[in-house]
Amino acid sequence: MHTLYGIKNCDTVKKARNWLDQNSISYRFHDYRTDGLSPELLQHFAEHIDWNKLLNRSSTSWRELSAEQQSDLTLEKALQLMLSTPTLIKRPILDFGDQLILGFNAKIGGYASILPEKTDINPIESL
């Protein structure tokens, strides 16, 4: 079973969940706010997705950070920021085993090109 990570009130997460539901693809939803975010889970994300893409620099949470927090970013600093403020993580993340999909774009058919008929999954890092 797939796991979709995000925050339940995020519009993009809602669209991804609706798409999965409409296409009868079973998944478990993991909300960072209610289910938490462990350092191990965040490390798993960083092992499969470039941290520069994982960090959502266009979020309100990013704009609320100080200039000092935003500057001189390294992997370690970015992971600490995301761990302390999970809304800095781009959403959603769909985990289907050894592959992660970052983001969702309904305009290009959602996950259709990535999860055709729930088999022959093609690796795509980010939409």
In short:
This protein is an alpha+beta fold and 127 residues long. It has helices at 11-22, 32-35, 39-48, 51-54, 60-63, 67-70, 75-84, and strands at residues 2-6, 27-31, 93-95, 100-102. The radius of gyration is 15 Å and the shape is globular.
Tell me what the structure shows.
The chain has 127 residues and is an alpha+beta fold. The protein has a single domain, classed as Glutaredoxin (3-Layer(aba) Sandwich), CATH 3.40.30.10. Helix content is 38%, strand content 13%. It has helices spanning 11-22, 32-35, 39-48, 51-54, 60-63, 67-70, 75-84, and strands spanning 2-6, 27-31, 93-95, 100-102. Strands 2-1-3-4 form a 4-stranded mixed beta sheet. A hairpin with a 4-residue loop joins strand 3 (93-95) and strand 4 (100-102). It starts with a strand and ends in a 25-residue tail after the last strand.
Please compute the radius of gyration using only Cα atoms. Answer: 15 Å
**What number is the mean pLDDT?**
88
User: How many domains make up the 3D coordinates?
Assistant: 1
Fourth-level CATH superfamily: Glutaredoxin
The total count of helices amounts to: 7
The CATH topology corresponds to Glutaredoxin
Low-confidence stretches: 118-127
Shape-level CATH architecture: 3-Layer(aba) Sandwich
How much of the sequence lies in strands comes to: 5-15%
Helix and strand run: EHEHHHHHHEE
Widest sheet, order of strands = 2-1-3-4
